[in-house]
């Protein structure tokens, strides 16, 4: 295994959209340019649960998280995403949506059916409701895998002012201005 290498890109370059035309992870040509906010890593308890709840209102959850203290944010403009990056993100988002939506449906559905059903079926329904709840909670895993930061392998530096990219592709690095 080669050692993981982290390069630093000045935040103002990233915010101006002065970015390479090849993706940072695979070095393939960008098929899409993405604008998003990239956070620094902070140890925030309960942040995953907030993400689960925010699946439907992704943008709002992200904005709320920015208010958390010590989180530095870079407003990324036009980050290059190749076909593989795009597919990876879409696939994880799809899995998360199915788990979250399916779990919610099972949970709410079993409650509704429980209200209408005969008394004897309640224990079975409780099991279904529980399974639905577990699915909703577990959807946090694929959801975090779909996160832009995970897909591109970059975070904002803890002190802000720069974006740290792990193991950037050589095609990506070649197009960065020297500093
Ligand atoms: Zn890629």
What does this protein look like?
This protein has about 180 residues and is of the alpha+beta class. The chain has one domain. It is built from 8 helices and 5 strands; from the N terminus they run βαβααβααααββα. Strands 1-5-4 form a 3-stranded antiparallel beta sheet. A two-stranded antiparallel sheet has the order 2-3. Strand 4 and strand 5 form a beta hairpin. Bound molecules: zinc ion (ZN).
Q: Identify the bound ligands.
A: zinc ion
How would you spell out the order of helices and strands? EHEHHEHHHHEEH
Give the count of structural domains.
1
Query: What's the shape?
Result: elongated
What's a concise summary of this model?
The chain contains eight helices and five strands. With 179 residues, the chain is α+β, with helices and mostly antiparallel strands. It has one domain (6-174).
Features:
179 residues; alpha+beta; three-stranded antiparallel sheet; two-stranded antiparallel sheet; 50% helix; binds zinc ion; transmembrane helix; membrane; transmembrane
